[in-house]
Amino acid sequence: MSKSKPPVVRLHEMQPGQTGDFFVLLAERVRGARRDGKPYYTCRFRDAQRSAAFMVWSDGGWFEVCETEWREGAFYKVRGRYDEHPTYGPQIDVINIRPVTDDDRQAGFDPLEFVERTRYDVEAMFTELWKLAESQIGDVPLRRLVLTLLDRSSKALKTRPASTKHFYPFAGGLLEHTLSVTHTCLHLVDKYAGRYPDLMPPLNRDLVLAGAILHDIGRTRELDDAVASPQATVEGRFLGHVLLARDLVRDTARELGDVDPELVQLLEHIILAHLERPEWGSPRLPLIPECLIVHHADDLDAKMEMYARCLSRDQEESPFTARDPVLGRQLYKGRRK
Amino acid sequence: MSKSKPPVVRLHEMQPGQTGDFFVLLAERVRGARRDGKPYYTCRFRDAQRSAAFMVWSDGGWFEVCETEWREGAFYKVRGRYDEHPTYGPQIDVINIRPVTDDDRQAGFDPLEFVERTRYDVEAMFTELWKLAESQIGDVPLRRLVLTLLDRSSKALKTRPASTKHFYPFAGGLLEHTLSVTHTCLHLVDKYAGRYPDLMPPLNRDLVLAGAILHDIGRTRELDDAVASPQATVEGRFLGHVLLARDLVRDTARELGDVDPELVQLLEHIILAHLERPEWGSPRLPLIPECLIVHHADDLDAKMEMYARCLSRDQEESPFTARDPVLGRQLYKGRRK
Amino acid sequence: MSKSKPPVVRLHEMQPGQTGDFFVLLAERVRGARRDGKPYYTCRFRDAQRSAAFMVWSDGGWFEVCETEWREGAFYKVRGRYDEHPTYGPQIDVINIRPVTDDDRQAGFDPLEFVERTRYDVEAMFTELWKLAESQIGDVPLRRLVLTLLDRSSKALKTRPASTKHFYPFAGGLLEHTLSVTHTCLHLVDKYAGRYPDLMPPLNRDLVLAGAILHDIGRTRELDDAVASPQATVEGRFLGHVLLARDLVRDTARELGDVDPELVQLLEHIILAHLERPEWGSPRLPLIPECLIVHHADDLDAKMEMYARCLSRDQEESPFTARDPVLGRQLYKGRRK
Amino acid sequence: MSKSKPPVVRLHEMQPGQTGDFFVLLAERVRGARRDGKPYYTCRFRDAQRSAAFMVWSDGGWFEVCETEWREGAFYKVRGRYDEHPTYGPQIDVINIRPVTDDDRQAGFDPLEFVERTRYDVEAMFTELWKLAESQIGDVPLRRLVLTLLDRSSKALKTRPASTKHFYPFAGGLLEHTLSVTHTCLHLVDKYAGRYPDLMPPLNRDLVLAGAILHDIGRTRELDDAVASPQATVEGRFLGHVLLARDLVRDTARELGDVDPELVQLLEHIILAHLERPEWGSPRLPLIPECLIVHHADDLDAKMEMYARCLSRDQEESPFTARDPVLGRQLYKGRRK
Amino acid sequence: MSKSKPPVVRLHEMQPGQTGDFFVLLAERVRGARRDGKPYYTCRFRDAQRSAAFMVWSDGGWFEVCETEWREGAFYKVRGRYDEHPTYGPQIDVINIRPVTDDDRQAGFDPLEFVERTRYDVEAMFTELWKLAESQIGDVPLRRLVLTLLDRSSKALKTRPASTKHFYPFAGGLLEHTLSVTHTCLHLVDKYAGRYPDLMPPLNRDLVLAGAILHDIGRTRELDDAVASPQATVEGRFLGHVLLARDLVRDTARELGDVDPELVQLLEHIILAHLERPEWGSPRLPLIPECLIVHHADDLDAKMEMYARCLSRDQEESPFTARDPVLGRQLYKGRRK
Amino acid sequence: MSKSKPPVVRLHEMQPGQTGDFFVLLAERVRGARRDGKPYYTCRFRDAQRSAAFMVWSDGGWFEVCETEWREGAFYKVRGRYDEHPTYGPQIDVINIRPVTDDDRQAGFDPLEFVERTRYDVEAMFTELWKLAESQIGDVPLRRLVLTLLDRSSKALKTRPASTKHFYPFAGGLLEHTLSVTHTCLHLVDKYAGRYPDLMPPLNRDLVLAGAILHDIGRTRELDDAVASPQATVEGRFLGHVLLARDLVRDTARELGDVDPELVQLLEHIILAHLERPEWGSPRLPLIPECLIVHHADDLDAKMEMYARCLSRDQEESPFTARDPVLGRQLYKGRRK
User: Fold this and answer.
1) Are the Cβ atoms of A38 and F319 closer than 8 angstroms?
2) Helix/strand/coil for F286
3) DSSP single-letter state for residue B117
4) Global pTM?
């Protein structure tokens, strides 16, 4: 890069006409062709709050590297000039560009800043979930099993979406969902234990807690660790998150060696059956009431997030949202003032 | 009856050989025929804790009245002698018998003592539900709507089952279920209002409460008031409890006249959609998140009761219960000590 | 407008090069961008028989008003010159334009002339339906109920489609469908009353007639009164036309006060159950034979219209039509000469 | 038989104590065993209006022939004494018995008198159907095709049920159903031809008539000719009535040789598709509007008969019938006086 | 037992009036009550070819031990007298009786002789299956995995049914089915490898073989080892045979340590997906062609056995069998001479 | 054409700049419009291995004939110059063009060379299938029936796809599929005849062979004989290949006159039922075990081809293919080196 370095800035804070160095995600790279046959690329770079176009013409300097090296979903450090076209909107004129390096990462570059992510602090959520497991699971070996799995999955929990498209589809969504489900389960198991004090066998509070915390732990292995648009892993496709979670429990319990075998069996059962029906993804039906609590807490939490996201994003003027493709319906929002 | 009246007793407290006056439900009346062609009736009388047989032979004194007048499900005052046959078990020898009268009812006869009923005190539950409505629903006209409906349905809520066969199938079950669902909804709406503070429109706590309290209010009209084995009413068959509940809300809101029309519309919607899908009994799909909360609280509560009842009654020696015909599966109970 | 007014004409009667004043529907308004970045709008105006384009360039005089004020589905009075481009077809050059006013309407402007509508005279059809109700429904209060509802819905019946996409999707289609179903029902109930003269209860001719006339009356409230592409109303989405129709009957019967309650109950039932199954839109199953007649007459009439429309519009050369997206199949039309 | 012959009588006209000769159907023959191990048969003979029992003890004279020769569903000429037991009801004491012979048939014995059958005169119905075909089908070769098939199937049409259990399950029901469907179709095709006068191709009235008359002609081969409880034939099981009817049309058209091939193809299509969906029994979907008319006329007529039969037979005291096992619901009949 | 021991015989070889010692299965033990109220048991003992009754009256010597100790499904050594009652058929008069002991087993008592079992020699079948694995699986570690699992499951394979009711429901049926499926798979994989020689990746013959041999290995753990009417185990109910088989493969592969991980993953996949759809019992869909071969070979083999068994057992006189409750249809057998 | 004829070449062998005469299929003809309103056509000609574009501008010489005469799916003889544009790829400049004539066909033009077709020699496959029928079907009249049908369908078998989109969708695919299924069936029937030697009736090897060879013979009439993208025929739409095949068997058997009627009936049954369920296309369920063999051999063969084709064509870099639209899933292919 040139001697007098421009300042390091954030794309979304730049003023029209300003030149600076900034990190961006290459969100889109589409090939087109002009009427005279010359190819070009329309590239779209963005950070979390702004997206700007860069046209790469075949006779400009960036064509070859764009064609052969740039990848959608990758991060770049750009030196460029920002402008706003009256019709085409935000534009970048690239002066220099290179992929992000490990040095950048050590210097504080964080890919999560460039994608949609949970509104909550992931460290605080993880600590909260950890403390719930620590304080609420009475059976010592079972508690250790849960904590071991939390510990080993902590990075993925903090960065993965709960699902790629349906619910909590953003970084950290998996942790946010898990924590919410666990809180709901804690309330419900205490409620129902109170209502059925003589049940034999009694409702197992430890099992419900462990089931809530671990019900989606398999999702940490179902998707890879790409920050922008993670993909299914090989084992994710072959097994799915339900079997992956159950295997994690089974293997870890074996490794630890001291968890009561019936507890392990029932915890595996809660995980296998928490989607309730084969056509919804569970190979076995719920055979214990603890499973019902995890199922309903999970299902409600996922749907609440979908409804809330649909309502939040909708721009329609009518009292109903546009049709949500996942929900298959138009939600009511009333005539907001 | 004879001059020296025998004492008034309870069937389930009688000793073999004892004679007394007692109230019973005629639970079963089956015609049979002996090998020589003579018809007879096997009758089974019971109170809440004991059931005893009475054979009515064609040449005994009770045959004609049994054949022409006695009805299954009706209550009788019996003067009789109680015995226990080594093979056939508890027997009654009827000395005198007549249907229960209004005088009996005024003198304290209570049909509910003869059928299965909720473990909880119905007056206490009703008061609790009332107070929840009173204290938790902020919108004054909506609160008055809910209280008016509670007031008018109080007798039925306290005596009806939630359903005849599936869940809470016992007297007072409807109130027990409604109260439990309301508590769950109260917790969940506060939880989710906290998690989505910026939702537009915000989660409507009043609506969730009102929906929870009234979601099954139509069941007070779906079944008649027969204490033993209530039957569907004509409007119950033509409309079903979902439409009946929605009509009660609509009519009462009109009568009161001051409830915000959008609130009435959304409360009707929660009731219509709380079973979530047409094939599960809801003519419309949920279009607001409040409906999700009522649906999941309701569904979980019904299933928990079914699981708990299945586990409580099971006598199988194996670690699994017998197949529950409603659930369509065998639950796990472990090897109880 | 200018002093020497051009003549008032119809768009579809104009000659190339002719200038005139005419009413049009703005059927399409799509934003585009030229290669140099300048935006433009492609507008399409039409009356019932001709559609003509008007390009609104960003540097022409109409751009701003087009961008901010014109709405698809609205009607305008245009002063313009008509031409036919060899490649792009019919074109308008707008000289002046303003939205249609109430004065226009009073002066005879009729929006229905600009959209697809029933082949039949709506006044004549309405009179025929009215007379059927008047002459064929014997029970006086029931007849009055039907006539009251017809009277109050007359405007909507005459202008609404029966459905927006599936069957009779054109103005007045709702009335055309209702009349046709009523005729069929009249024939069928007489036929089956003759075949089952001893049926107890006998087939109720009045009920069948009333059910036929009112089975889709809820559709008058399900869609709004936009002439071009009507939209679902709020109550339409929350309740659907089946419940809306049943409510109209219930409310009007209460208001009138003299209809036999059992008749009202059965009429509501016919409406609720006339789609026969929950997955087809009826919350309850048919419990009386009268309902079968209305269901089959309705279903057949809707399908006949769909088949006839598919056959009428098809332009394929093969002996089968193109695949009809609603019917999901290709109809046979033979090798027409 | 003995010299002084008793009079020939009808079982249902006999007086207790009377002896006579009469024809009966052996409706039931069940083996039992007494406590001492001796086997016996409970036989039940009946004519159309009365059923009477005959106990065949192992030490009586009829045991061996009952065990080895008598068949349920067969007809017998019996000389016997009729009695009415106070408990067991009508009894026969058999003096002599032999299977019905061809001589009996020639002497006027008619098996149809012993089973449930249509309320209408089968000869009159057949004549009416014949005349409809003759007068209403304009295309001469097509008309001849229909008449040929009617002629060849006349005996079966007059004696078979339309189906063994579901609708018109009685002798002659097939003809009664066919005639009713044909009348309905005649009305509907004229109605819709009038409503769609410009349809291309126009509604083919001849095809609708022929389709109505022949839609169930395959049922004449699906069941055998046993008067009491007919059984499925081999070809009936392998092909079903839909394919059997279509084959009859195809074969007969080939034999006659002069029917327009497109008409034959379309008539076959109406028959194949008249049940509308694969899961309802039609291998192909309706591709012409004529098929819709036959489908709806057929479906409505079958259901009307099921509803009427359910209502006619019901003995319940409540305003609803007992649950009809075929319809899967309880119909409403009101509180009959 | 008495001094002069009667000979040891087989029940099905005894002559009426003969007394002997023999082993039997208690196939049925049903409590009844006489008219005078005295209880009794009807017991039915059998060996593979004969079943004989023993009435245990309340005043006979065996009542108490029958009531408190005898269990259906258990084996006994009986000293008794055999007779044939003209009405009630084969009878035993028990002189002495005791449960079978380990000494009996060592002395040659084999429970399998008393239940329905495979027509083939289980040792020969096992050897054949072993040799197929040994000779046909080329990959050494994979072969060792399969052989290890065969070795450990050999006893269960030889004695269990393939399923309790649906297909191969007899002792050794599991092995017979597995061997048959393996042979079919061997043929099919060679056939399709020949037809698609260039497929990338090529069809993996080893995988198909291993999948065929192990696809139902989980059934060795799904049912317990009761010879007569085996019951589902706890893990059988919680996991089902599909997951049990996959776990066996996974665990054994880990234990052995040298199988290629991708091979293990694909072998697990074949097992998980061999039932093809969630609603048929597979939690994942087939993603490799090898799985198709195992699925079709398995499905065909199970159905062929069901058809063959239905045809073999049928006693109907008609050209069709009685309705098979599992197949839900009547098979054609023709008019056998 | 001009005097000095250019050489006759193949499109896919031409060098840039070369001029020649060659046969092509017009694979695509799409109308477009330039910004100035002038229409043009983008045409795409191809032979089996190369596709090249030809732009037809409105002011060029070929516009009118292109607009009025050229048809997609037709073959043309072209004299033209071949070029390769750096951006737009292969181009043709048409000098002369005319439709292919019968003379061309006689001179060796073969349309099959221009479409995807089976990898195998169709003559060799047909001979092999013929010989299988000749040598393996023991019953002489049945064998003659099969050979007659093969003979009459030989041309279509050799050129049609098995289906247009799902499996074997290429010329000759129908024969390739039929031969493969027949081989599998031959193996399976011998296998199962060996395993069930005592089955009554025994497995009929002739029937299985005939069923395998003829199960899809109806497809020769379901599609027309267009080489490129064949269309459904009228009888194909009305009857479908299952009924068409069964009719071919029925008619030919009648014509030949000597085939055992029960064999014909069972062969028709195998064809009608070989898709196993109504929702999969079979109007009747399999009632004989022979049908199971044909069904499974057919289903497996179709699916193997779909999997193999999906794997062969996939270009994705990941270990899974792109989602196959027919299979509805992504297959695993591993990380190919």
Assistant:
1) no
2) coil
3) B
4) 0.90
